[in-house]
Input
Amino acid sequence: MACAPPLLELQGTKLCVEHCPHRFYQLNDMFKQCHTSCQTCTDASPQGCLTGRYFSEKETCEPCDSSCRHCTGLRPDQCLTCHRGFALHAVERRCTRCCQAGVNDTDCCVCDGRSGLCVEAPQPKSGDDQVTDLNVSSAAQKHTSAGVPIALLLALGLALAVFALVKAHARKKLCWGQSYERLNGSANMPHGVPEPDSGDEVDVVYTSRGGSVYRRYSFIHEQDADPPHHVDESTCLNQM
Output
């Protein structure tokens, strides 16, 4: 529709008005609506709103977060545009400081001057790579150190078992380590085990089925004077 001058068309309606209403702006021969976040504007973009304010649901002008130049709400993740030196993170809707050339900083973003958006996160410098490597190495050491005590306990247990076997063998306390000596004579000779009340320290003598006489070396005469150790003689004879 065409409105007669000095009237202008109000966008979205069939009205012709003389003065621009609230939350509209003039573009050529038409009054157009502002961005929904704006109370007053000069164009349809949010940049046309009054700096640092937004039009709330209460239809009152409320201040934005200090990090936002234009916004849709009071939180820092409701920014629409940012102040000079900052750019808008398109996903998080936050204003992030633009990285400076030659400065090693990760709390910034690479900014696009035309769109005012963060285009990419900064690449870590050599110092950051070293820190990352140290963190990875530290995590690996934590996992490795958890298994070290178990391995040490197993190795210690094995070493003690081997040591005990070697010690027992050296002291002739193993059944298969008993020594016997064949004696001259026959089974008719007086041999045998002394009576329990006998205090004589004599060697125990055995006679095999074939008539051979054997004497077991007594441990009493050894230099280390180890206490008597009970051994099943019948088992030892069967192993011969």
Remarks:
- Residues 33 and 103 are 43 Å apart (CA to CA).
